Amino acid sequence: xxSDGRHTLSSFMLSTQLNYxxxxxxxxxxxxxxxxxxxxxxxxxxxxxxxxxxxxxxxxAEEVGGKIGDxxxxxxxxxxxxxxxxxxxxxxxxxxxLTVNRNLNRDFMKKVPSALPDTPGGGSKVVPIASLNxxxxxxxxxxxxxxxxxxxxxxxxxxxxxLFSMEMVDESGEIRVTxxxxxxxxxxxxxxxxxxxxxxxxxxxxANKQYTSVKNDYEMTLNGESTVIPCEDSCDVPMVQCxxxxxxxxxxxxxxxxxxxxxxxxxxxEVTKLTTKSNREVSKRTLSLMDMSGKLVNVxxxxxxxxxFDGSGQPIVAIKGAKLSDYGGRSxxxxxxxxxxxxxxxxxxxxxxxxxxxxGHALEGQSLTEVRGGSGNYMENWKTLADVKSEHxxxxxxxxxxxxxxxxxxxxxENCLYQACPSQDCNKKVIxxxxxxxxxxxxxxEFPNFKYRLILSANIADYxxxxxxxxxxxxxxxxxxxxxxxxxxxxxxxxxxxxxxFQHANFNTFVFRNRVKLxxxxxxxxxxxxxxxxxxxxxxxxxxxxxMNIRKLGAK
Amino acid sequence: xxxxxxxxxxxxxCSMLSRFINRAVCFVGRVEKVHPSGKMFTVVDGESxxxxxxxxxxxxxxxxxxxxxxxxxSNKGDIMASTYNTLREDRGVPFDLELYNxxxxxxxxxxxxxxxxxxASG
Lengths: 556, 122
What we know:
A: CATH 2.40.50.140; 8-stranded mixed sheet; elongated; B: alpha/beta; CATH 2.40.50.140; globular; metal-binding (chain A); nucleus (chain A); DNA binding (chain A); zinc-finger (chain A)
């Protein structure tokens, strides 16, 4: 029985290792002691028992000379749950001899955990996630769920089962937690992402780093003895633990690495649907992320995340556990185990916002993801026509794509139109049967008509060099400002009007997205350049890029 | 007026006014306030600094938006305008004054590449 001068409590027990203190009469009635470390267990009947782990005698009993104060027994009902988080250094007066518990203590400890109620904190002290290891089993952590997977089932030769996994974070670190079979039933619906829980008595094992980017040597599995209890007081548990990699650094990482990134969403494409090999339809959306390294990277979102994503206002997007791939050089994909946060309430986000508003927005940024086939992403690979030749673009195995600003200096109006198959998806040149019918070899059909299509040969130039390019239907129509059908009509009926269109189109400047490839015809190799896309010059973007390039040159 | 047309007119902003006193300049800025007399107005440059423009004759119509003023810088740092013109912003592309300011800085940081001289003919 101990007293603090005001109340007495007889539910104190010495932990086994301190038994000697009672045996050797160090702890004697009426001595004043400082309780340095203890564990408070709560019994099912509501009573509390304090197990003393470390105690120091401040004043021996002889010097104290009797009872101090007039303490009255303390009734347990008055205790508040947060009591045990108060300073663990409590001074007590020993009133009656402490029972020496040898095995008693051990039994006690065994009994108490099984009588563990569903009240927060009952059982053991809250420990930091960083201290969890397989060699201790009696711990409780208080952490926030940052990510919860869906239930996945498997069925193999050994049987079948189900599992779910989640990631939890507290002030000290993070850890991956998995629950199988019965634990799925017990805990899956109880756990909500973003909420804080007390978790105790999970089993720890070495983490399988292949499946997770969570920074912890261990990972936890919930078992039959594990408990998960919601925690109300959660304000000081952090929302997320991220170890952000600068986008510029992604080039140095291995493909398939799992990384955390944060950046400004500079642009976002429309959501598209594609069909997987298993004939499932899945939504997909690509966005472009830029950070203070000045580099951009494409991030692909899938499913509901892709559909719901709103990139307006160039938000800050943070992704934890994104998968790095070497598609297009370097690109990121948000997998089912990634967590995406938009405008998260973390310091890195504010830093990025400030940087972007001040200088980042004017930066062109260099994308690590080379988009193929001109999907409208003009943010990369700007070249002058002289660069294209000096860098031998197109000489490799694969075609090269580049963007440039150039002026049309010549348009070949002879043979720019051909008669094509009128079928919807067929553009093959038809053969004039001379009897009013036109034959398409590909469709193996004859038609009474045809549709005009453009193949325009042009020479474009900039201050340094020029380039012969071929423009097909869409880009040719954009350059000439007329559609193929109208042009065909004009050619047959009004030649001067036809010529005037070409005169008018000459000496216009555009942004060209071109594809170059070395082609070999009969021992002769030539670079063929095709215009994939033509756009009017955005002078603001162009100016910004020029200023940036000038500054870069000036800094050298 | 004729005199100013033959002379190079470096583009400047407010922070450069003091360096170009008694010299012909070209100043681009957004009209802030027009003096009731119509003979004076203030302009704001890409760095959000203000300068005063004085005219020979009072304005005949309301002036607003981005203007390009050609004139001499007075001892006080005001611009004595010889001529001005308004940059139309209603054709879809707004004039980015901050970007213009960045370009200005480039011109002045690299005078060896952007010389302000009358090109010698012949």
